[in-house]
Every structure is written in C-alpha cells, then in structure tokens.
Amino acid sequence: MYSLKNLPPLYVRPAPLKGVRWIYSLVFMISFGIILMRMFGIHIKGHSFWLLAVGIPFACWFVIGTLCVVIWMLRDVKASGYDKRREKWILSETRKSRRAFQVLSTSIITGHIVKDKDELLNSLLMNKIIISSQKDRSGNESIRLSLFPDNDDNISGLILNIFKELICKLPLSYIPGNNNLVVTLDVSSVIPKEIINKLWFQSWGEFGSLHSVELMESKGPGILDTWLNTRIKDNSLLLIVALQVAPVNADNTAEAAVALLLGNRLMQESITPMAILHRPDPSPAEELESGMRMAAYNVPIKDDIVKHLWLSGMNDRQHTEVVIHQNKPPAQAVEGDTVINLDSTMGHAGAAAPWLAIAAAAEIAQQTQSPQMIICGDTTQDVLWSTLVTPVTSRQEMDS
How high is the pLDDT of residue 20? Predict the structure, then answer.
C-alpha cells in the first residue's frame, strides 16, 4: 500500500554560522593572549610582543574557524542531499497514490423490483427499504433479508442466469481483441467456490466471446490496491464480478450481484469511461478519519464538494465509527438524505457489498457530474475502505 502516512521526517539542518559570534570569539582570544603575554612575557618587548600576543590567538582562531566552516558545509551538503531524496520520494509516492481506474461499465442486480437501471438507482438514492421478514432460501421462516425477484429454488440455475445477465450488459464488442480480461469472482454463498467458477465459465462460453479470460483469485477492495501497485501499465481490463446469493447466515443480509469493468487510465482508450475510481485507503474503524483524508488526498479533492456518501458492508461497531466520523473532511457537507446506507435499506450484501456501492456511486457520479464518496467494509479483514468516485475529467494522471 503506497501512502504518505509513512512520510520521512524533515532533516534537522545545522545552524548557520553567525559572523557576530566569530568576531566576539576573535576579540576574546586576542584579549586573552595579551593578558597571558603581560603575565608571562615580561622579557618580550616591542614588536615581538604584539606579534605573539595577537598573531598566535588569531592563527588558532583561523584554524578552528576553518574547521568549523568545513564541517558545517559538509553537514549542509548532506542535508541538501537528504531533502532532494525526500522530495523525490514524496513526488513518487504521490503519483502512485493518485493512480486510478476508469470505470467502463457497471451492472447491478438487487432485490428491488424495478423496470430499468434508472429506477434501481433512484430507489438506492431514495434509501428505499426492501429488507423485510420472510423465508430464506433454506426454508427458514421470519428472517430479515432481501432476495432476488427470481424465486428459482435451484440456486445453481439462479446463479447461472445472473452471470448471463451480467455478461450480456458488458460492452464486449468495444473491447479490442488484444485486450486481456482479468476476471475476479468475489462471491459469498453456500455454493462451493469450484461450482461458482464452473458456472461462470459456462455462462461466459455460451456467449462465444473471443476475448481471452484470466481468472484472478482475490477478494475484497484490496484487489484495487494490489492492481494499482503492480499492473497499472498492463494492457488488460479488470472485470470484477461480485455476488451474494443464499449466504450461510441469511439474517439481515441482501442478495446482490454486480459486474464492474475497470480499465487502466494510462492504457485504455477504446471505451469512453463513465467515471474515475480513485485509489481506496484502508484504515481500522477507529482511524477512519485519517483514511477519509488519505482517500481525498489520493484524488485530490477539495472539501465540501462530495455529493453523496455511500455506506455498505459494515458491522455494528464499524457503523458506529462511521456515524462518529462521517461529518469529517471530505464528507462534512454530506448529511441527511444524501447519506445512502445500503446495509439498512437492503441488508448486508456480503462479498458484493463494496462493489455494489462503488458501481452505484459511479453511475450517480456520471449522472450528477459530482464526486461520490464510499466507505465500505471488507469480508476478508477488519478494516474500512474509503474511496472516491469522480466524474471523468481531462486531467491525465502522471505516473513514474
């Protein structure tokens, strides 16, 4: 994780030499020399007396002064070299922290009963509550959750249909044949991972795509951080497919599916991006304020211009910390209905929770042309991720 939180300290430079002090020291040494010569040099008279009384102290003062100047210059050169290396490090780390993705396509499926994507986004923005007490997919009664509208009891068949629907909405025809698709499946379900992978490739194969696919084993928003660190110059697109269906513990959960297609800003020029997803910053819940500030620095972004705050995938303790810190920069202007809490309106979407918030925020950023902030949990570690999605701008990121 690249971060300026580990900024090296400033080098303590040596104090500059002051001429007044050197003059005082010279006067003192000459005076001291004259006193000594008066006390012990009674046989030395005339010109020789003053030569010794003044010359010897002056010579000593000159030698000592020259050594001090040389030492000071060497220390100053060392400090200047350190400062240059520090500035170079800050510039390099700033460029790395400000790496970002192009959001090329999003697809969202939730338990909302809607006609199209616009109606779904409007329901999310309005904090429409769809979680209710009902029977889960294991047959347990009176469980608070939200389910996909498709009530297919065959969970594998349901997952297959969801994958097909997500793939259908991808802009595959606009992706050049030389672009590799790196796919990561982030799924929480009672269905084993091996079956999930098989269902994905079955869905992909039925569409006869000519694009090569590389399956990457990774979970959580840390995928984004790792990619920006290691693959920012790859001629590859990152496709995140996130799904929660029939979770192991269904109480207070939401079924949701998301496909998020991301491209490297330095390499991808074939598809017009809809928004920019900036580097996320992880922090313990109690240090959320520093994580929010670092996420804003990664853009960079001014205070008071974040339009909406999206919250998703948090436990009770994390949500308490968010309530405490949500009015801190850069989200201090967001309040009331502009805080979208997906956990309270839909339920905890598990592995799909962070991607659901990011995909919805990207759509709204495109519609409103205003920055969106996301704070989400992680099923793989006890941290909160803070990130921002902004409208597409003409400023091209710089990278080393």
Answer: 53
Q: Give residues with Cβ within 8 angstroms of 109, minimum separation 6.
A: 148, 162, 165, 166, 256, 257, 258
CA angle 139, 144, 147 (to 5 degrees): 65
pLDDT at 50 (0 to 100): 60
DSSP 2: -
Tell me what the pLDDT averaged over the chain comes to. 85
Residue given tokens 């000519």 in the structure block: 210
- Distance in Å from the first CA to the final CA of the chain: 16
Q: How many angstroms separate the CA atoms of 167 and 183, rounded?
A: 12
Cα 268 from Cα 263, distance rounded (Å): 6
Nearest to 390 by CA among 67, 171, 102, 154: 102
| Long-range contacts (CB closer than 8 Å, 24 or more residues apart) made by 8-11 | 8/86, 8/89, 10/83, 10/86, 11/78, 11/79, 11/82, 11/83, 11/86
Q: What are the residues whose beta carbons fall under 8 Å from the beta carbon of 255, sequence distance 6 or more?
A: 110, 111, 145, 146, 147, 148, 244, 245, 246, 349
Phi, psi of 229 (to 5 degrees): -80, -35
Residue 385 three-state SS? strand
Among residues 156, 106, 112, the alpha carbon closest in space to that of 132 is found at 112
**Which distant-in-sequence residues (6+ apart) come within 8 Å of 204 by Cβ?**
163, 167, 213
Residue whose pair of structure tokens reads 């594998």 in the numeric block: 156
| DSSP-based three-state secondary structure for 184 | strand
Considering the entire predicted model, what is its pTM?
A: 0.82
E strand or H helix at 254: strand 253-254
Dihedral, 108, 292, 275, 199 alpha carbons, nearest 10: -30
pLDDT band of residue 195 (cuts 50, 70, 90) is: very high
Look up residue 85 and give its two tokens: 């290396």
* CA of residue 264 relative to chain centroid, distance: 15
Q: What is the DSSP letter of 209?
A: -
Owner of token pair 């102290």: 57
Whose CA is closest to 214, among 189, 192, 228, 231? 231
Q: What is the pLDDT of residue 242?
A: 97
User: Among positive and negative, which fits the CA dihedral 358, 360, 366, 372?
Assistant: negative
